[in-house]
Design goal:
Largest sheet of chain A: 7 strands, mixed
Structural class of chain A: alpha/beta
Mean pLDDT of chain A: 87
Radius of gyration of chain A: 31 Å
Strand content of chain A: 15-25%
Shape of chain A: flat
Strand order of the largest sheet of chain A: 9-8-11-10-12-13-14
Oligomer: homodimer
Chain lengths: 706, 706
Amino acid sequence: MNLSNSQNRSRASNLKYLLAPRSIAIVGASSNAEKLSGRVLAYLQRHNFKGKIWPVNPAQSSIGDLTCYADAAALPAAPDLGVVALSPQASVKAVETLAARGARSCAVLSSGFAEVGKEGAALEQRMAQITEAHDMALLGPNCLGFFNAFDNTFSTFSQYAGGKASAGPVAFVSQSGAFGTAVAGLARQKGIGLGWFVNTGNEAALDVWDVLEAAVDDTRIEVLAAYVESMGNGRKMVRLARRAAKAGKPLVLAKVGNSAQGAKAAAAHTGALATPARIYQGVATQLGVISVADEREMLNVIEALLRAGRIRGHRIGVVTMSGGAGVQMADLAESLGAPLPDLSENTRNKLKPLVPEFASLNNPVDVTAQFIAKPEILENAVATLQSDPELDCIILWLQMMDGFGDRIAEGISKCQGTSSVPLLVTWVAANAGTRKALHNHGLATFDSGADAVRAAVAMARSSNAIALLEDEPFPSLSDDRPKSARVLATGAAAEMLAGCGVPLARSVAVNSAEDAARAVDGDQAYAFKIISPDIAHKSDIGGVRLGVEGKDVAKEVFDDLMASAKAAHPDARLDGVEVQPMAPHGVELVFGYSHHPSLGPVVMLGHGGIFVELVGGAQFGVAPVGARQAEAMLDALPAQDLLDGARGRPPVDRKALAQSFADFSNHVSLHSDALAEVDLNPVIATKDGFIAVDWLVSAAAKETEQ
Amino acid sequence: MNLSNSQNRSRASNLKYLLAPRSIAIVGASSNAEKLSGRVLAYLQRHNFKGKIWPVNPAQSSIGDLTCYADAAALPAAPDLGVVALSPQASVKAVETLAARGARSCAVLSSGFAEVGKEGAALEQRMAQITEAHDMALLGPNCLGFFNAFDNTFSTFSQYAGGKASAGPVAFVSQSGAFGTAVAGLARQKGIGLGWFVNTGNEAALDVWDVLEAAVDDTRIEVLAAYVESMGNGRKMVRLARRAAKAGKPLVLAKVGNSAQGAKAAAAHTGALATPARIYQGVATQLGVISVADEREMLNVIEALLRAGRIRGHRIGVVTMSGGAGVQMADLAESLGAPLPDLSENTRNKLKPLVPEFASLNNPVDVTAQFIAKPEILENAVATLQSDPELDCIILWLQMMDGFGDRIAEGISKCQGTSSVPLLVTWVAANAGTRKALHNHGLATFDSGADAVRAAVAMARSSNAIALLEDEPFPSLSDDRPKSARVLATGAAAEMLAGCGVPLARSVAVNSAEDAARAVDGDQAYAFKIISPDIAHKSDIGGVRLGVEGKDVAKEVFDDLMASAKAAHPDARLDGVEVQPMAPHGVELVFGYSHHPSLGPVVMLGHGGIFVELVGGAQFGVAPVGARQAEAMLDALPAQDLLDGARGRPPVDRKALAQSFADFSNHVSLHSDALAEVDLNPVIATKDGFIAVDWLVSAAAKETEQ
């Protein structure tokens, strides 16, 4: 999906009729519950759908107690929803008839559309055009349908609906049907009810973000979750995430399809480093999305959110009956960037009389197995950590204890009842009785310490990021984007960057050895760089010389550079040599910008100069980023030593540098209609701000230039 | 534990009496099964121990049917094993009495020893001395004991022994009691029997490696597994891993306690980069250990080994009913360094008629949900991939399918029966019936695609490494290690390195500007470096100048360097300036060596020059490493671009370079009694071999120098 297409699509206007219909026509209904549309009818009845059900099938006059209609035109009234499960051709026809009959929405379960080739894609487009013209919501095609368990509406043939399906405050949306069903099945095994389950399939019109937007507005829903293979219109994701954050509804996303093969080749570093996975991860982090790697992590986070509550920060306290398990959790927390904090003197003093003499009072607190004789040891330890204002969440680790599950679960449920500090209970190899007791007491329970730590850190990271989201309205950008781009000559690029407020190392272009000599000043050292629109990485071909001093040397270097460039790229246009005073002593960074096809303006902050690719770890965000967000990006760079003054360099002023980057991101996003790509590399950061020493700018070509 | 202590300890000589005793004295036995020693007696009887049980308790004349003895001296014969569960003081006394009575081994379950402080440590040492003097095996203290399910010997108070405990071909050894019990509990939940379970506790004498060595020799055991917090004597780990590889018994290790805080500060890069986690990971990889992150991964690997067999390589084929799940597994496999391979034309052609028209014939093969109607689709797809000689293992992904579990499990079990290519079945949200069916058919089953991929990649990595282990006997080193070290002056270091066969960039030391001028030759460019035993990173303080040409410049640079060094380190001894022809154009690497306190000689291979810390990712191994192992280390470096000729450099000859590093590792390990630390940085690798341009050598000080 791309932006221009999405403009032509039927949007969410009639989504409420789709998700909470008062009447449903099932086109292609069958009394055979083995068939797809037979299952939809069976599931609607099984779950006591309260509205009207109108089966449509020319071959039958009734199905069970229900009158059957020959086609949608014959329906007794305009249905809120038409569910279609026919061949591809017949499905389009059915949608047309439904539209004519005044249906407000439809869900097309049939496959055989864009996923199978051009012919199917054309049918799909036709269907989208019909629904758009009639202002109908369209779910699918090629999907399992959806259910809204709050309103007993199971318009799906997902096998999940064949079992119990209690309503819970979770909206789960999936682009994949089979995977979505698996997640729903796991939720049921955990005793977590899904309020909404929506499989968006091919997303001819409605996409994941549309459905989640509707979930933000539904007061019965507290947690938003989605399984996403294709980001689609990234601007919609950004808007949704910001709305969800504002509404206080956690957004849990599992995004797959992040392998490196999708990365586009590009002239500038920003492009080359900007793999889909890195950009997505950067933007998700910036927006406070709770990113999960897979279905297991997703369900763990949802369980933690529902039963333990949101975790506000990454200071985790651990109580364990095994020192080994504690070490393992400490290792993992540290590797995830959330090392377990030391306990305060006060908390240690409070703990001391409450736990066995040989217990460890460090974090993790190892109470040993002595609590079996004295169950209050466990409760006291947990409650003491919960009362420590310097901890954001508590993880308790237990194992087996067959026969003691009930008693222990009851004890720790008291801790959950008397404190608002979230408590995550890990119980390895718990038997069925223990699991049941934990569930009955409403405790968030995990199968392994790693699960609990991962969930806590993911939630904490989200809370930290949401605290940095700024309140100001997010600029709504047009869906236009550069149709093509051209690399600007150094001078023109400098002009454009100056207009964006980027401070540039002043330089002069010279065309002869004599001019080069004139351009240098006695005492000052200069950098000489070949000027060519055809050579991207100048230093690789000997096109850069640093520390040039004196007029004679300047002449010689000019000739050398021109000769090297000609030797390396005989066909390149050479526009002379740029003479620039040597940059101030500082830390090298790269500031990047590119117009992302789906997310719009995206900025990059990374280690610069030769470190761009070598050190890697550049951070991405949608522009504009705020100063505090920029500081978080800076803090996330891998080689923190470089920023702190490694190898004799002065340390950077992080706040000032973050502000500079935020300003840069603001400038480029304001000029995003004219800019395709900007690469400031290196930027030299000093205590006094930053200066770009070299740059590459691609301007967005105007439509007429194409 | 360190090497010199371990020399004083009772070794494994009487281990067989401990693990398979014909008679067991329980000192501190009790009829109360709530007490520790009461539980040992109860568990031995419950599991039908066939040998003699002799309770020892002065307060009772009998326990149940068994005669009770007043003390160990009164025993009717020398017991093969004495189990001791008394206070710390009384335990030592009991061990003494057992020794006098001729007991061949003892397991001390009591706590209150080294884990609680100095006094306890002294008691523990005393106990170890007694057992050593009497050539008794000693397990513990501070442990849960052990069981040997093959021989019905449950000498433990672990709650695991309270339930069913079938014997399986797995030896599991744990330093942690509670964590070990959790692993045993999980194994039971998976239907995996443990043959041996041994908790080594404080390891006063026997350690994890001793027990696993015994397991290598026991023909009933096929898989070795351990949970390790402290590596202890790393040489023993190395020897064990090599023996296990030779015996064809997979070694699965979960090593915790890897957080960065333990890294020692050191003058040379090798030391600074050599965090415990990195060294352990490097050595484990080199030795073909199957490294697992936690108990979950451990059990998954064990299940795969037992039910699917060893996986010989990392070419994974995936069959899935969900495209989304396939993408997720592909992402994960790629991120673990094992991207899913494309299927051959031949395999695709064979698949085509067997799967639905809309199925994806790429890897992952997405058969869609159509196999519900036609179960043979699934079997055919799996069997076709199994018959592809370019795949090493097959992962099948399914979800839910309540009611179809039996039928599907039966079908895919045929594939397992007719092919030796391992099949890992992932079944998300399987119900109890399905789980049972999978188990009954002996299929290796996982709860998530991520679990299966992780297990497969860990096993493949191990097989790849074992194929590189050389057959030649591993040098058995003395337990001696350098007591202290001193940094050698450049010249002395060069002499020592030359003796180790390291080619060095020839250089001359000069002590005056005039000598510097004499040392340079008209056309050649030189590197000038300050010589000082007190300055480790010379370039950071302006102590290095590159590209010096001409006699006048040489004079000037000499004076500059001396002045810079004096300014930066007024107290440093300055021994003049080293004048060295500029190194050949090549790839910068670092070769490192250090004498590890536990593993002995450890070598490091990494990106060199300024990239050492910035790029990171240096690889470690125990010396000597073979040429093919060295090539694997080279292939594992993070910035492969640098090796392939990034930024205008010539690519390295990997085979030649690997051979050079192997030679280096061989040389330094032969001189490991004289060398404490070597840091060749940078090493310039060219097509013609390598040359060390700068180096830092710490010699091992002789005993008498201390």
